[in-house]
Amino acid sequence: MLANLGRREESVALLRDTVAGRRSALGPAHPLTLRARASLLEMLPAAEVLTEEGGALLTLPSECDRFLGPDHTVTLGAGHNHAWALYLLGRFDEADREIRRVAETYVRRFGPEYPIVLAARQLLSRTRAALGHVEEGIELMTDVVARRERDLGPEHPFTVASRQLLDEYRSGRWRPPQPSGG
Questions:
Q1: Tell me: the pLDDT tens digits for 27-62?
Q2: Apex CA 106: angle with CA 103 and CA 109, to 5°?
């Protein structure tokens, strides 16, 4: 919530305190501890993901899988956030494999219209385009935009953002993030 108000540093500090408190009170393998760490993985800039917890956030999906199982919502969320971090790090092959697995599991669990499925498919479109498969990225985003327009309306912020990404692909203006290490 604080991050949405432009107070990212405060949000990250609060989240770090939450992770520490949950580790202490609940243990490192508790779903709430793992969920807080997954949130931290999502909030941090790519360079900080590499250094946070000595780089351990990059192994979070396998920890979640080991403690909670592959289909647990915390495991899926950690995988989704992990794929985003890998994408920002320029590790497109790894991000693509991770988000493809997550998106397929989301579809199986929630159906193709569920909002988190569409978010995962949007990231999949980014990884496919970053790997040189721009037409596949366009195809994925065309589907995401159509579903968001139908379910949320054409002026919803998620629909508008998806349409902008699709327009960037089509116009050739879209560029993947530059690798920042890792």
A1: 999 999 999 999 998 889 888 999 999 999 999 999
A2: 155
